[in-house]
Design a protein that fits this description.
This is 4Fe-4S ferredoxin-type domain-containing protein. It comes from marine sediment metagenome. The chain has 251 residues and is an alpha/beta fold. The protein has 3 domains: 84 residues, no CATH class; 43 residues; 109 residues, Orthogonal Bundle (Fumarate Reductase Iron-sulfur Protein, Chain B, domain 2), CATH 1.10.1060. 36% of the residues lie in helices and 12% in strands. It has 11 helices and 6 strands. It has a 3-stranded parallel beta sheet with strand order 1-2-6. Strands 3-4-5 form a 3-stranded antiparallel beta sheet. A hairpin with a 2-residue loop joins strand 4 and strand 5. Helix 7 packs across helix 9. The longest helix has 15 residues. The radius of gyration is 19 Å and the shape is globular. The model has no long low-confidence stretch (mean pLDDT 96). The chain binds iron/sulfur cluster (3 copies).
């Protein structure tokens, strides 16, 4: 409630969270900082009558994209704890590791969903913090995982998803972080009827993800949060982005 608290606000390429996820839990008027994808999640919540437009003051941030630490770890062969500093300078990202500087093109280290971003500037806002950013989507780089899956035969793809979803521990982080997953009672918690078993068998994990994807179809803004938070690195965006594209084509 103290306005000097705003001095503690930080915006940088590591502030990942899509804050729209919290809007349905807050009563009364609230201010929210929103990147391009977050602002579209807010619009979707308003369209679903989950949020009243007049109750939110949107501070829009034209977004240069978020840095995927996993990609930097892979490129530097170092754990994120071993990296001294990471800075973005224009279209370059510089990682300091062991006293040495390593330079990468931003396209090498941004999250896949940011590589595909067509609307980095919020579409809905009350105050825009900064100049609008032109979109520069790189669909080929962003869609490598999905393209790889499409090259497989149906049997191979089935096996691949079986392997991936066998690792799911059903922590529900992917659901909880998603602004489009706003049901007060999720179907996975229903007991009459019980749609899926509580134990994380791959078959039930598959049903969870398929039904979740159907429920968020048309609401998902490709914010990438579900994939980012998965503790076992299941490539969930290969499902959500494919659904996003199908919905985009059909409607
Ligand atoms: S998809 Fe990425 S680049 Fe686009 S607004 Fe969201 S966080 Fe920013
Ligand atoms: S975040 Fe990952 S491990 Fe957790 S429920 Fe979702 S897919 Fe499963
Ligand atoms: S399904 Fe994933 S990518 Fe889509 S809105 Fe939810 S958290 Fe974001």
């Amino acid at each position: 409630k103290d306005k000097t608290d705003t001095e503690r606000l930080v915006i940088n390429p590591f502030i990942f969270n899509n804050l729209a996820d919290f809007l349905t839990e807050i009563k009364g008027r609230v201010g929210i900082v929103a990147k391009g994808c977050d602002s579209r999640s807010i619009v979707s919540l308003i369209q679903d009558n989950k949020v009243v437009r007049e109750d939110v003051v949107i501070l829009g941030v034209p977004c240069p994209g978020l840095i995927d630490l996993a990609k930097i770890e892979e490129l530097t062969a170092k754990d994120r704890d071993e990296l001294d500093e990471i800075t973005r300078q224009g279209e370059k990202v510089i990682a300091k590791v062991g006293g040495q500087k390593k330079e990468f093109a931003a396209n090498q280290v941004l999250f896949d969903h940011c590589l595909a971003c067509e609307l980095p500037t919020p579409q809905e806002y009350d105050i825009l913090l900064g100049e609008p950013r032109p979109p520069a989507p790189n669909m080929e780089a962003s869609g490598k995982n999905i393209a790889g899956l499409k090259e497989l035969t149906s049997a191979e793809r089935w096996e691949s998803w079986q392997n991936e979803l066998s690792r799911c521990i059903r922590c529900y982080a992917c659901r909880n972080v998603c602004p489009a997953c706003f049901c007060q009672r999720c179907f996975v918690e229903e007991t009459e009827p019980q749609w899926i078993m509580p134990m994380p068998r791959w078959q039930d994990n598959l049903i969870f993800q398929i039904v979740r994807n159907i429920h968020v179809a048309g609401r998902c803004t490709d914010c990438g949060e579900c994939e980012r938070v998965c503790p076992v690195n299941i490539p969930l965006r290969s499902l959500t982005r494919e659904m996003y594209d199908i919905v985009g084509e059909l409607f």
